[in-house]
Amino acid sequence: MTIISSAVKRSIPGIYPILDAQWLNAKDSFSPAKIKQVAVAIAAADISVLQLRCKATGLAAYEFIDTWLPTLREHCKNTAIIINDRVDLALYFEADGVHVGQDDLPPHLCRKLLGAKSIIGLSTHSLTEIRNATDTTVDYIGFGPIFPTTSKTDTKAIQGVKALAAAQKATSLPIVAIGGIGIEQIPEIKKTKTAAAAMISGLWDEQIEPQFNTATSIWLNN
User: Fold this and answer.
1) Which CATH number describes the domain made up of 6-220?
2) pLDDT band for position 156 (50/70/90)?
3) Which of 20, 28, 51, 175 lies in disulfide reach of 82, CB 3.0 to 4.6 Å?
4) Where are the domains of the chain?
5) Cα distances (Å, whole numbers) of residue 128 to 131, 161, 166, 170, 175
């Protein structure tokens, strides 16, 4: 398990990569050498937190995490690793936390199972959900989708940058913007004072080479 600094737990800063099984597996076979390349790129970009996401049922989520996690831990010593949805797998793999949706296990139960030191994130899609999340034990709030996205099929209504800016005023918790964010949208997201930008397909070029360093450089310089 990564040792989470209080600063990371409090702010979830910068670029927040989501390594999504469905998107990645559709683009590349991701051999051990390729996974190592990705892990090294994440470490070089000084990424504070990332998420492993697999929406498939059965053993697929376990197999995806088991394939990626050892290499990420070996090379990304200063990166907190969050598991999407699956509190059971977060416990089994001793991950740094979990990110859940509105219909998943409630945050207070996640906290009871994972403990005070774990990072817990919650997806929201409206100001009402944000205000409700403020009264829970979550460490950060995901808000979106900000732009149209092809990385997920069951998306909610597009929120837009204006709604993201309004969301900042509705809570004291860090907000992670998500949904259709590419390299070119980073300055626009940063202007809203959002804590971080969650990115999936936007972190890869046409040859499926990672662009983590480019993304973090743009974030830091805007």
Assistant:
1) 3.20.20.70
2) confident
3) 51
4) 6-220
5) 5, 17, 12, 9, 14
Question: Within 13 A of 58's CA, how many CA atoms are on the CB side?
Answer: 1
Tokens of 10: 């409090």
Mean pLDDT of 200-208: 94
The rounded distance, in Å, linking the Cα atoms of 134 and 136 is: 6
Question: Mean per-residue pLDDT for 30-35?
Answer: 95
CA quadruple 83, 54, 189, 209: dihedral sign: positive
Give the whole-angstrom CA distance, residue 209 versus residue 60.
24
Q: Write down the pTM of the prediction.
A: 0.94
CB 199 within 8 A of CB 18: yes
Q: Which residues contact 108 (CB under 8 A, 6 or more apart)?
A: 136, 137
